[in-house]
């Protein structure tokens, strides 16, 4: 099997692990910097140029590792591979959806998957009634496209919420208001979904002075066994967003577990270290199953 890993660097932990496991299992694998790819549209033909060569027919499957800051470029490259019937661990539409928190939550809510009470408004007018609708303050204020806990703020009073929102509004930044789940005690759950099943899970906890639980913010984690209901929630969320491989983040509340985010490019370093599961190998094995079940394609 020929595997293409779309990544901006071969030094990123997740990229290296996927590359190593693919080689270990006897596959041909290449790391392609999607920022250096060009799509050529002409006469109905499909072409992706990379380092002067057309790579549209080079791969049987691709593994996109698309960061939030380059969603447009990355998703476009993935879409062109999809149009050429190349299987991807993250569909282009799934990448678009997951990189926008509002779009993700709208979809999950429409599928009746539990999420925190969330409010979106294009204006800070009537802030008092907006906060009241969420049972706050305190409330969480999130940028729609933040990652690794960046762009997530806690407003403990109406005054602080007004100050933060006025600043974001002035900067023309899209944001969400979300209920604050105090009983979560700065903990959340990352469930790693591969091919319709949860292959690993960990509980993350933030530092004593930070309500965010992200490992990139200095948090810690332990491996856990999540409930059958939580597994079903994670698998459904990944499916509805169009992500065969995904990191689904949940928070436990008095109302039960709630999905707070779905990541189309979940990192492997934390989950492999804390859950002690070879997630990279699980992803390669999943791709093998999809490749073997696919009709043989004649290359041009």
What key attributes describe this structure?
3 domains; D-amino Acid Aminotransferase, Chain A, domain 1; globular; five-stranded antiparallel β-sheet; 9 helices; Rossmann fold; four-stranded parallel β-sheet; alpha+beta; Dna Ligase, domain 1; 300 residues
**Known CATH architecture of the largest domain:** 2-Layer Sandwich
Rounded mean pLDDT is 90
Describe the oligomeric state of these chains in a short phrase. Answer: single chain
Under CATH, the homologous superfamily of the largest domain reads ATP-grasp fold, B domain
Q: Which blocks of ≥5 consecutive residues have pLDDT under 50?
A: none
Describe the structure.
The protein is an alpha+beta fold and 300 residues long. Helix content is 32%, strand content 28%. The strands form four sheets. Strands 14-13-12-15-16 form a five-stranded antiparallel sheet, with helices on both faces. The two termini are 17 Å apart. The mean pLDDT is 90.
Topology:
Blueprint lengths: L1 E5 L6 H12 L3 E5 L5 E5 L2 E6 L2 E2 L6 E4 L6 H13 L3 E2 L3 H7 L2 H10 L7 E2 L7 H7 L5 E5 L8 E4 L2 H13 L4 E5 L7 E8 L2 E9 L14 E4 L4 H14 L3 E9 L2 E8 L5 H7 L3 H14 L8
Parallel strand pairs: 1-2, 1-6, 6-7
Antiparallel strand pairs: 3-4, 4-5, 8-11, 9-10, 9-11, 12-13, 12-15, 13-14, 15-16
Helix pairs in contact: 1-9, 2-3
């Amino acid at each position: 099997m020929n595997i293409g890993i779309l990544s901006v660097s071969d030094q990123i932990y997740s990229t290296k692990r996927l590359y190593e496991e693919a080689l270990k299992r006897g596959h041909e694998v290449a790391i392609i910097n999607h920022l250096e790819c060009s799509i050529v549209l002409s006469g109905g033909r499909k072409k992706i140029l990379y380092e002067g060569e057309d790579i549209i027919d080079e791969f049987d499957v691709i593994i996109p590792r698309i960061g939030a800051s380059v969603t447009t470029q990355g998703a476009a490259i993935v879409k062109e591979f999809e149009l050429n019937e190349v299987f991807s661990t993250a569909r282009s539409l799934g990448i678009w959806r997951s990189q926008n928190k509002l779009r993700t939550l709208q979809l999950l809510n429409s599928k009746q998957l539990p999420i925190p009470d969330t409010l979106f408004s294009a204006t800070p007018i009537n802030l008092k009634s907006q906060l009241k609708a969420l049972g706050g303050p305190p409330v969480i204020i999130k940028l729609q496209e933040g990652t690794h806990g960046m762009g997530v703020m806690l407003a403990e009073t109406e005054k602080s919420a007004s100050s933060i929102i006025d600043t974001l509004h002035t900067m023309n930044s899209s944001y969400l208001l979300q209920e604050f789940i105090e009983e979560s005690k700065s903990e959340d759950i990352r469930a790693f979904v591969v091919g319709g099943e949860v292959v690993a899970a960990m509980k993350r906890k933030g530092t004593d002075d930070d309500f965010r639980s992200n490992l990139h913010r200095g948090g810690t984690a332990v491996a856990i066994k999540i409930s059958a209901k939580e597994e079903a929630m994670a698998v459904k969320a990944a499916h509805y967003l169009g992500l065969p491989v995904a990191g689904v983040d949940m928070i436990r509340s008095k109302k039960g577990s709630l999905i707070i985010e779905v990541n189309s490019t979940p990192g492997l370093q934390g989950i492999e270290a804390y859950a002690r599961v070879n997630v990279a190998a699980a992803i390669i094995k999943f791709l093998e199953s999809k490749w073997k079940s696919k009709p043989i394609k004649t290359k041009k």
